[in-house]
Amino acid sequence: MKKVIMGNHAVSWGVRLARAEVIAAYPITPQTQIVEELAEMCAAGSLKARFIKVESEHSAMAACIGAAAAGARAFTATSAQGLALMHEMLHWAAGGRLPVVMADVNRAMAPGWTVWTDQNDSLSQRDTGWIQLYCESNQEVLDTTIQAFKLAEAVDLPVMIVLDAFFLSHTYEPVDIPDAADVDAFLPPRKARYKLDTKEPHSFGALAPPSVYMEMRLRQQEAMAEALKAARAIDEEWGQRFGRRYGLLERYRAEDAELLLVTSGTVTSTARYVVDQLRAKGEKVGLVKARMFRPFPTEDWRAALAGVPQVAVLDRNISPGHSGIFAEEIRAALYDLPENQRPAIHGYIVGLGGRDVRPETIIDCIDRTRAAAGARKGTEREDVWVGVKS
Amino acid sequence: MPDDRPNTDFVHGVPPIAVSSTTTMANRTGSWKYIRPIYQDKIAPCNAACPVGIDIEGVMNLLREGHLAEAQDLILRENPLPGVTGRLCERPCEGACNRVQFDEAVSIHAVERMLGDLETTPMAAPKPARAEQVAIVGSGPAGLACAWHLARLGYAVDLFESEAEAGGRLRREVPEYRLPRAVLNREINRIRALGVNLRTHTRVGVDVKWQELSAYDAVFLAGAPRRIKAIDLPGASEVHGVHTAHEFLRGGPGQPVDLLGRRVTVLGGGDAAVDAARCAVRHGGRVTIVHDGPHDSLRGHADAVKEAIREGVRFVFDAAPLAARTSDDPPDDWEGRLDPADVIQGDGYGVRARLVGVEFTRSAPGSTGAAGMTAPAGERFFQPADVLIDARPVPADLDALPSEIARVGGVLAVDAFGRTSRESWFAGGDAAGEGGTVAEALGSGKRAAIGIDRHLRARAGEEVPELDAKALRYGGTGNMSMTRWRGDDPVFRTNELNEVVTFEMLNMAHFARVEAHEDRHLDPDHRGFGWAETNLGLSTEEGLAEAARCFNCGVCNMCELCMIFCPDVAIKRQAQGFSLSYKYCKGCGVCVEECPRGAMSMTREGL
Predict the structure, then answer these.
(1) CB A304 within 8 A of CB A345
(2) A193 — contact with chain B (CB < 8 Å)?
(3) Secondary structure of chain B: what % helix, strand, coil (to 5)?
(4) I need a surface site. Which of B300, B384, B462, B554 has the fewest CB within 10 A?
(5) Structural domain of residue B219, as residue ranges?
(6) B563 in a domain, yes or no?
(7) CATH topology for A249-385?
(8) Cβ pair B18:A206 closer than 8 A
């Protein structure tokens, strides 16, 4: 069934089709419509879930943790300051190996007060142990939401689905909504291996002395490695059932490219347009879209970028005092490639706090990359801020 | 995929998620603490404020659980006249109630009245009969209380009453519409049913000589007559239309008084004045109470004052009477109007002068006078009146009591246990200046009963506890508890601390605001000149609901919040109270903080 829906409601539909059992959320722009729609679905009975209203995002995640520990399929959604408030609980969910699924609508961090998009909220949570998947379209949002539950439960790790504020969250696009029966076949009910059960009492998240703590973190790390494989397999199964595949990253017109753009989120769609324009003029420019950020698919990046002379990474985020975060991660991943295979990585900071990233912005990045290409080839140059007032 | 994986999958020696593989009992979190919670019941402020010494909180708790008979039993252990005090007490308990600081006090008097009016159920049997005999002089509330407690302790009691029926001032002075005689009789019969030998029509000192009482093992002097004498007001003696409240109230409903349309002035500001005024209303009078103090110095029961106003009684404050003016000596501006009907009835005007009014002087400026105007202090005004009732305080008359017993301030000198200067003779109530209110009188009778019990048991060579007044008193300063003295408290208490719980010690997060159940009243328009009780009280259901408003200050009522909140599952419910495992309690204090009623305390570890 095709419906024209906003990105936020694509999340809601994904959660409904995944038959989440507990939803605990606190409203925050630009996420609120996700849980509003879910509340309506719960009220109407089209989604048989317990909807828990809470007093803060910290409590929302705490409630999801409790629900997941009791064996339920749990979901929440948030943005920016709300996600930051959850920070402690994000560690509890991941360290507790609880397959909570959350949608984060990318919103820049205050101050100055803002509701517009950039990725600093989700990327600030990089080291909490959550799987992160960045989406480009409303269809991808819906598909990824359903995949996220299967992935989370396969490896007992929480998954964050990330979508841009307004450019996706409030933008209407045609979305193919799969039949519930088909989704049920793809995603059976959750079977928790360990859960809170008064008949068989266990404590969860209790004291772990130095003699076991490290092993527990090692197992978490091994689960992340497992998640790479599982995500690939799940995306493939999804493709077989529903005809749409996304990969961990996506190469677009990248063959024989002399310059590759690296993007994530909705900037990718603009970049596709630019690449198409340049290819039409015979320029060897392509695109790699980052979809999975954690676990980081290092091998996929090496395969995608090895031997490409120039790579321009567009970061809608900044790690203050260092660089754009995707650029930093990619530089590190490619460092031990043989020197003749190692591309020059050009970092560009764009679109912070919801500033438009237009085709001209991207062309500006490409021009700057070409200009710098003749200069020193390396990975240590500073990122360039594009589209800022001088 | 999840379903296919083995159920036990330890890798690197740990499970995949942070789940315990064994019990957490090995983790003795109790070793972390340096302070520890304890269960420690304390004293509710109502108990400490009660002049009778009733375990009010205990009564409320039993009612909360629906135990009507047990609640009545608990009240009767301390107070034989709950039906009376539920109606007449000035209820200091409600003023002390912690609920005042949250919404409204628990309507304790209404609950007490409801219990007092219930059919009495069998209660704890009196102790085995003893050989000693005790004489009690006066069957007012002090004498009745002492008789009740002594009889329940096993003593033979002779209760002397000069009048035809027991009750003292309750019967002589309190009007039927405030205290139906059926209620008083029922409570007195409950006392007599214990075997108390009531000897009415017996004036001690006249019909029975004082030295005859020496044959008793102990004597309790409870009553004293009022020193009734001619009205102390110039021009008022031998005047038609002038009465004392004493003689006026004594008439009660049956008094053949017709005040229809008459202007009645009542002097005084206590219960006698308000009672006389409301009786005069019932006899058809148009009544004004003139009090020589300000409004806030009225001593009449607040409810009765309110009812008097509803019944049309007017009040004049800050005015002292100077002289009665009569038809022989009218004020200069008096335009005499003799009601021909009075003359025709021939009820004495031919013999005595007739009252025409009272002259007053203002004792303070600014209050509203008879003319409805403000006036300076010292100004005189004339209040026209056909009838004057003098209801100003009358002292007790102790002349008839044995003169060798020491006096202080015009009453018998007694200690905390009612002991007088004479061996084996005790006193309370009006005889000892402890009859100001019914509740004080009841409390004094109980204290004397404790004193007499200890005295007689010690004389019989029994082991008796030291008389520690403070330990027997609720909160150290309230009245004494008979159950504490007897050591047969039916209420389970943990580690009781004789300390009053303040509002700050309670946790209001666990209470909802609920309005008090108000007494229902007869509509003033439908009272007519009848004598039916005007306060209708609460139904049993309303009384139970009102009792459920009680915070149960300081006393564990097994609400289980401590157990629910304990993060270490260290608290377990027992048949009575809770157990607290100090092996696992880490001293976080959450239980003490959450306890809604201050029934837990923190103590230093090791102390």
Answers:
(1) no
(2) yes
(3) 35, 15, 50
(4) B462
(5) 133-227+408-468
(6) no
(7) Rossmann fold (3.40.50)
(8) yes
Record: contact B1-A202, CB cut-off 8 A? no
Q: Do B248 and B384 belong together in one domain?
A: yes
Q: What is the DSSP letter of A179?
A: P
In this structure, the answer to whether residues B248 and B340 fall within a common structural domain is yes
CA distances for B111 relative to B82, B352, B442, B539, B547, angstroms: 10, 51, 18, 9, 7
SS3 B81: coil
pLDDT per position as a tens digit, B394-453: 888 888 899 999 999 889 999 999 999 999 999 999 999 998 899 999 999 999 999 999
Closest CA to A272 of A359, A158, A361: A359
For A283-335, the pLDDT digits (tens) are: 999 999 999 999 999 999 999 999 999 999 999 999 999 999 999 999 999 99
- Indicate whether B149 and B194 sit together in one domain: yes
Residue linked to tokens 């943990």: B494
Cα–Cα distance, A307 to A259 (Å, whole number): 10
Could you tell me if B512 lies within 8 Å of chain A, comparing CB atoms?
Answer: no
Structure tokens at B375: 């006036």
A249-385 has the same fold as A2-242: yes
Determine whether the interchain pair B18/A97 forms a contact, defined as Cβ–Cβ distance below 8 Å: yes
Report the CATH number of the A2-242 domain.
Answer: 3.40.50.970
Q: What is the domain count for chain B?
A: 3
The angle, 0 to 180 degrees and rounded to 10, between the axes of the packed helices A210-242 and A87-95 is 90
Regarding whether B245 and B368 lie in a shared domain, the answer is: yes
Tokens of residue B248, six digits: 């006026």
In a domain, B309, yes or no: yes
- For chain A, give the number of residues: 390
CATH at B176: 3.50.50.60
State yes or no: pLDDT of B364 exceeds 60. yes
Asked if the Cβ–Cβ distance from B13 to A212 is below 8 Å, we say yes
Complex ipTM > 0.85: no
Residue B112 dihedral angles phi and psi, to the nearest 5°: -60, -45
Q: Where are the domains of chain A?
A: 2-242, 249-385
Residue B24 inside a domain? The answer is no
Residue in chain A closest to B5 (alpha carbons) equals A193
Residue with tokens 């005042």, as numbered in its chain: B100
Return the residue of A nearest to B7 by Cα: A193
Residue to mutate among B10, B12, B17, with most A CBs inside 10 A, is B17
Q: Is residue B291 part of a domain?
A: yes
Distances in Å between the alpha carbon of B93 and those of A228, B20, B186, B557, B599? 72, 53, 25, 20, 20
Please say if the pLDDT value at position B2 is more than 80: no
pTM for the whole thing? 0.74
**Residues B351 and B377 grouped into a single domain:** yes
Please choose, from the candidates A49, A54, A30, the residue with its C-alpha nearest in 3D space to the C-alpha of residue A38.
A49
**Same domain for B184 and B223?**
yes
Tallying the residues shown for chain B, one arrives at 607
- The distance of Cα B222 from the centroid of its chain, to the nearest Å, equals 17
pLDDT of B342 > 50? The answer is no
B83 residue type, one letter: G
